[in-house]
Amino acid sequence: MCQRHHRHSIFCILPPQVLDQIVRNGKKADRDWALDALHADNTQRAMRASGAVQPARKTRSNSHPGEIKRTVYTAKNKSDLPGKSVRDEDDGPHKDAAVNQAFDALGATHGFFWEVFQRNSIDDEGLPLLATVHYGKKYPNAFWDGAQMVFGDGDGKLFNSFTASLDVIGHELAHGVTQDEAQLAYFNQAGALNESMSDVFGSLVKQYALKQTADKADWLIGAELLTKEVKGVALRSLAAPGTAYDDPVLGKDPQPAHMKDYVRTSDDNGGVHTNSGIPNHAFYLAARAIGGHAWEKAGLVWYDTLRDKRLKPNAGFAAFAKLTVNNAVTLFGSGSKEAKAIKEAWVAVGVKV
Question: Which of 82, 233, 239, 295 might form a disulfide with 73, Cβ 3.0–4.6 angstroms?
Answer without folding.
Answer: 82
